[in-house]
Amino acid sequence: IAFHLAAVLHYFAGEPQHALAATGRIFEIIRQHGLPTAPSSFGWLHGHLVAALGRVEEGFEQMREAERSCRRLGLGVALTGFDLHYAEACLESGRLDEGLAAAARGLARAEQGQERFLLAPLHRVQGELRQARDRLEQRAQAALSDAIRRDIAQEPIIVERNGRKVIPIKADFR
């Protein structure tokens, strides 16, 4: 519990390296003492930190594995915390729609369960995700207007390809 609390405190203090070291120490203790290796809430914190430090896909997979582990262990009450960390990690890595879905799940769980204390941070991250999505949309619209003004846009639309917003450009300008 002490390393988990240390990890959480370092996380909130903006010290991801120290938080990651604390969650890593939890994994070491589990292995050293032959405890069940299924990660729980420290596992998604660990995954969030891994993603924040640049190993995004690995971090998200660790977070999802920790969520699956909690479900298998019947630790459903902690899943609101997973949704919060997942939404924050999505915000940090630009996965805005995925983050909004996680925030919505967390808000629904918090309203129904015993983790109402997470409502405020879930609303905060949901608002930040919406703002980021709006800024992205504004930048895309500005780029489209510029492409139309410069007569290089193939069509006056923004399409999505492989999860990215794209402006179709005339072949002569590619």
| Beta-strand percent range | under 5%
SSE string, helices as H and strands as E? HHHHHHHEE
Number of helices, counting only DSSP H or I runs of 4 residues or more: 7
Query: For the largest beta sheet, what order do the strands appear in spatially?
Result: 1-2
Q: Oligomeric status of the shown chains?
A: single chain
Question: Structural class of the helices, strands and pairings?
Answer: mainly alpha
Distance between the termini: 56 Å
Low-confidence stretches: none
The main β sheet shows up as: 2 strands, antiparallel
Tell me how many strands there are: 2
Instruction: Write down the overall mean pLDDT.
Output: 88
Radius of gyration: 20 Å
Globally, the shape reads elongated
The share of residues in helices is: 55-70%
